[in-house]
């Protein structure tokens, strides 16, 4: 018999009926003899509602009070789910993050888990109870309630699975797995049977919203098998696992991620001297602006240009910072563009294949799509293009890498 940690997201517990359906599912696992720890999110929309309430009182709510507030969403769900389980004759107990001893640091609204004391949970499991835990929350060493950042229930589930050495951490959500790309953009997008932790991390950080990035990172670090499945339909979902657990015939590219959240800024006519990159980028990071891709052009007449991308929300601030830098450095001009999109191909198979970039660039060029910036890592190639060609680019790449065809392992 197995031990599963199962996480049900906001839409899966969005109404009393949904909570009853989750209870049915959990009872089903219990009846097969499995041990189950359930982690739940707040009912869908609830966290946003609480944040809006806070913002209606003050523009700058204290992070500590914010955590006291938003953690209540999950507390509602655990109690209701425990009741629904008990009604079905399934012994269950609900616990807040603090009660199951999820100890975090004190970084309110984005705390990190430090330690979990799993003995209490073991005792409950030994007594035959289902444990229902509020996701997204913990306590710091002084007993203050903390939360783990938006989407943090995924991380709670993975952390509990790691602490309990569960057989699998199952994330039940409103999609039935991880897809080769967003099915709303490409009809023939396919659910992946398996994907590596590394690939999933890239997909998540590049814009695929299925799982919280930190949860995937945590799962990879502690080698917790992680499965994404639908709460609403039967299926195997997608298993996120180590590379060695995936068939030999790895596809070169596993998925295509994209995002429209970035903007690019350029400072041109910068004197091409040692330290200019530092003098440009340091004030940007001092302003707490995250920079993603960076390109420096080859100098001409001892002048060069720098282009980098930032989150669109930071675009105006980034331009202001650059304008200041430009005046100081005697650069020629600062310009920017918010109508860009980033498209990335991701796959561990890239490590052992050459010509992946060529295939990517051919596919884009065949559609007449101009590439503005390129960045690569061992398992990913990202390009920045004009936003209006985003969907076309994603479709072209999906077919260039034959992602609509099932991988070899699935046909065996
Ligand atoms: N309820 C929290 C949120 O909406 C945590 C979660 O759902 O994972 O971000
Ligand atoms: Mg969520």
What descriptors fit this protein?
412 residues, alpha/beta, Carbamate kinase, VC0802-like, eight-stranded mixed sheet, 20 strands, 26% strand, binds aspartic acid, binds magnesium ion, AceGlu_kinase-like_sf, aspartate kinase activity
Describe the model.
The protein is an alpha/beta fold. It has 2 domains: 3-174, Carbamate kinase (3-Layer(aba) Sandwich), CATH 3.40.1160; 256-400, VC0802-like. Helices cover 35% and strands 26% of the residues. It has 12 helices and 20 strands. It has helices spanning 16-31, 46-57, 63-87, 119-126, 153-164, 197-205, 213-221, 276-286, 315-329, 356-366, 390-400, 408-411; strands spanning 3-8, 35-40, 92-95, 102-104, 113-116, 130-134, 137-139, 145-147, 168-173, 194-196, 226-230, 238-241, 255-259, 262-271, 291-296, 303-311, 333-337, 340-346, 373-377, 380-386. The strands form 5 sheets. It has an 8-stranded mixed sheet, with helices on both faces. A hairpin with a 7-residue loop joins strand 11 and strand 12. Helix 2 (46-57) packs antiparallel against helix 3, helix 6 (197-205) packs antiparallel against helix 7 and helix 8 (276-286) runs antiparallel to helix 9 (315-329). The longest helix has 25 residues, at 63-87. The chain is globular. The mean pLDDT is 94. The structure holds aspartic acid and magnesium ion. Magnesium ion is lined by residues 9-10, 41, 151, 153. Aspartic acid (ASP) is lined by residues 9-10, 41-42, 47, 73, 135-136, 150-154. This is Aspartokinase. Its EC number is 2.7.2.4. Keywords: Amino-acid biosynthesis, ATP-binding, Kinase, Lysine biosynthesis, Nucleotide-binding, Transferase. ATP binds at residues 7-10, 173-174, 179, 184, 209-210. Pfam families: AA_kinase, ACT, ACT_9.
């Amino acid at each position: 018999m197995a031990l599963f940690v199962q996480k049900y997201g906001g839409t899966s517990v969005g109404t009393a009926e949904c909570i009853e359906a989750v209870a049915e599912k959990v009872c089903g696992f219990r009846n097969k003899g499995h041990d189950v720890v359930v982690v739940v999110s707040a009912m869908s929309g609830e966290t946003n509602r609480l944040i809006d309430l806070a913002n209606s009182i003050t523009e700058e709510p204290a992070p500590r009070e914010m955590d006291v507030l938003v953690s209540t969403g999950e507390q509602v769900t655990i109690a209701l789910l425990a009741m629904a389980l008990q009604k079905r004759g399934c012994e269950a107990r609900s616990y807040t993050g603090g009660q199951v001893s999820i100890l975090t640091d004190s970084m309110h609204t984005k705390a990190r888990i430090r330690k979990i004391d799993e003995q209490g949970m073991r005792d409950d499991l030994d007594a035959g109870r289902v444990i229902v835990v509020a996701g997204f929350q913990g306590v710091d060493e002084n007993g203050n309630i903390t939360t783990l950042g938006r989407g943090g229930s995924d991380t709670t589930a993975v952390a509990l699975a790691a602490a309990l050495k569960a057989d699998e951490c199952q994330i039940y959500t409103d999609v039935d797995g991880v897809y080769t790309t967003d099915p709303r953009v490409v009809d023939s997008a396919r659910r992946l049977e398996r994907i590596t932790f590394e690939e999933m991390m890239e997909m998540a950080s590049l814009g695929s919203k299925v799982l919280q990035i930190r949860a995937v990172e945590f799962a990879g670090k502690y080698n917790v098998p992680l499965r994404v499945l639908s709460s609403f339909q039967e299926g195997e979902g997608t298993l996120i696992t180590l590379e060695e657990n995936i068939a030999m015939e790895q596809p070169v590219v596993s998925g295509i991620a994209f995002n429209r959240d970035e903007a690019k800024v350029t400072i041109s006519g910068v004197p091409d001297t040692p330290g200019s990159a530092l003098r440009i980028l340091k004030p940007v990071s001092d302003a707490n602006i995250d920079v993603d891709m960076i390109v420096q052009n080859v100098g001409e007449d001892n002048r060069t240009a720098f282009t980098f991308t930032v989150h669109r929300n930071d675009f105006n601030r980034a331009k202001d910072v650059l304008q200041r830098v430009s005046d100081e450095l005697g650069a020629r001009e600062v310009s920017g563009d918010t109508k860009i999109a980033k498209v990335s191909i991701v796959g561990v198979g890239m490590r052992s294949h050459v010509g992946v970039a060529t295939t990517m660039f051919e596919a884009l060029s065949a559609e007449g799509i101009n590439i503005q910036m390129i960045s690569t890592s061992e398992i990913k190639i990202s390009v920045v293009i004009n936003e209006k060609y985003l969907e076309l680019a994603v479709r072209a790449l999906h077919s260039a890498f034959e992602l609509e065809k099932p991988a070899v392992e699935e046909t065996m």
